[in-house]
Structure formats: structure tokens, C-alpha cells
Amino acid sequence: xxxxxxxxxxxxxxxxxxxxxxxxxxxxxxxxxxxxxxxxxxxxxxxxxxxxxxxxxxxxxxxxxxxxxxxxxxxxxxxxxxxxxxxxxxxxxxxxxxxxxxxxxxxxxxxxxxxxxxxxxxxxxxxxxxxxxxxxxxxxxxxxxxxxxxxxxxxxxxxxxxxxxxxxxxxxxxxxxxxxxxxxxxxxxxxxxxxxxxxxxxxxxxxxxxxxxxxxxxxxxxxxxxxxxxxxxxxxxxxxxxxxxxxxxxxxxxxxxxxxxxxxxxxxxxxxxxxxxxxxxx
Length: 282
Ligand SMILES: C[S@@+](CC[C@H](N)C(=O)[O-])C[C@H]1O[C@@H](n2cnc3c(N)ncnc32)[C@H](O)[C@@H]1O
What we know:
Blueprint: H1 5-14, H2 23-45, H3 54-68, H4 73-81, H5 86-96, H6 108-122, E1 129-133, H7 140-152, E2 161-167, H8 170-178, E3 180-182, H9 191-197, E4 198-200, E5 208-211, H10 213-216, E6 219-223, E7 236-241, H11 250-263, E8 264-272
Parallel strand pairs: 1-2, 1-7, 2-6, 7-8
Antiparallel strand pairs: 3-5, 4-5
Bound molecules: S-adenosylmethionine.
């Protein structure tokens, strides 16, 4: 996808030409740069930002700008729109996504999956089945699902399942794939699950736990934008798309729900966050 043309053209036409423009002009250029970034992020991720979020945008992009030695938002936009800026667009999206998540978050979804959905869908047949965590952030959601599945559908009893975990943020995915968490992130999990499914760090890794390899290997992590239309092949028994729709506008929510519905196996379930768009799903 290219940089939003109308906004990009606007930025280039109105870029200040004098070295020290008066403050009002400088502020105008900053605001145009802000609008341009908001449009770029919307185009690429559908995450809705606005001028009202200026402080948050500046705080999150500030680190990137410092790393690049760029002082102003117009300078940063210039870089984003340049031929070498594509990787920086990915970094900007990474910086502007909110990756908050937790083990056992909205645990009723996992309990319902292993207690009702899967027993009914599989009806005693040990066929391989697939779960998709489609905005998995740093991995707590797919690993929680893996813990529940291993408890109820253990590999040792011949059950074959895979979890596909995707997110737009490569930074969050790197953490997810590593599967290493500070001890205090595991506080909600039952003690015996921590003992069975995690390795305690020692030496330099003290204070951290790592998901055991046999469980980690059943998750595969991949960068994916929810707007992509691949994998619409009806193969997933359960899809999680939780606590991400809140960042989208209504048209995008509808598009994402339609897309994920096509990825579900017949009778499969799509879970959204508790407070997200129930009327879309009926
Ligand atoms: C608040 S976290 C939710 C994590 C987890 N699903 C949960 O409920 O705990 C939202 C995640 O959605 C991801 N996200 C935002 N826009 C996305 C998009 N267009 N495609 C895929 N992931 C996206 C963000 O990177 C972030 O990791």
C-alpha cells in the first residue's frame, strides 16, 4: 500500500520553505503532519487515531524519532514517505498499537471452548483441530488456550490441535514467540499449571518463566493484518478476535467479522471481547 496520496501531497505542498517559520506556521505544519500520520495508520491498520490523541501519538513516536535523530513530526513524515521509510511505517504501527493482554483474560471464553464448543464439534472423533488467536499481542491469549487444551485434550491421549497466533505488531509477536514472561504475569494462573507448563528461569533469567517447549511448539506465530483476506477457508473451529475491534470504526468491524466468519469451520465460534459489538454477531 502506498502512503495516502491526498495527505502526502498536502504535506509536500505545504512543507515550510523558510528555515525558521513563525510559530503559527510551524504549529500548522505539525498539525498537518499529525493528520498525515493518523491517515497513514488508518490506511494500514484501520486503527482510529485523531488530533485529540496528539499527546499519545507524540509520546509513542518520540522514541522512534529520537532513534532516527528527527526533531519534528514533519521531518518524521518526510522520512516515513521516503523510499527507505517502509520499514519505519511498520515500526510506527508497532509503536501505536496497544498490546495490553493477560493470561486468563475473559476466562469464560476458554472454559466455554473446552467445555461446550469442542466436545460438540468433535463429538468423540480425534480429528486435528485448529484455533486462531487473531490479535494475540504478546501471546498470553494463545498460551492460555494452549493450557486449557492440554488439560482437556492432551497430546498424550492422542489429541492433535494447533493454535495459529497472529498480530499486526511484530514487536509484540517477537515476545509471544519467545514465550518468556516475568513471574508476576503468571499470578492469575493455577499454581499446578505453572509447575506443569512453565520452566522457572535461573541465573540471569531468575524472576521469569518460560512456556515449556512441548506447548510452545503447538503454537505458530505469524505477522498478519486482520484486513488481509487470506485464510478464509473455513478451517478453524474457534477464532479469538478480542479487544481489538474497539480500535476500529463500524465499517472495519463489519469487514473483519465477515472475513473471520469465512475462516470458521461449520459450527465454529468467533469470540470477541466482552464489551465489543455484540449486535454484529447475531
Ligand atoms: C489490546 S490487544 C488485545 C490482545 C488479546 N486479544 C486480548 O484480548 O488480551 C490488541 C491487539 O490487536 C492488534 N491489532 C491492532 N490492529 C490490528 C490489525 N489491523 N490486524 C491485526 N492485529 C491488530 C494490536 O497489535 C494488539 O496487539
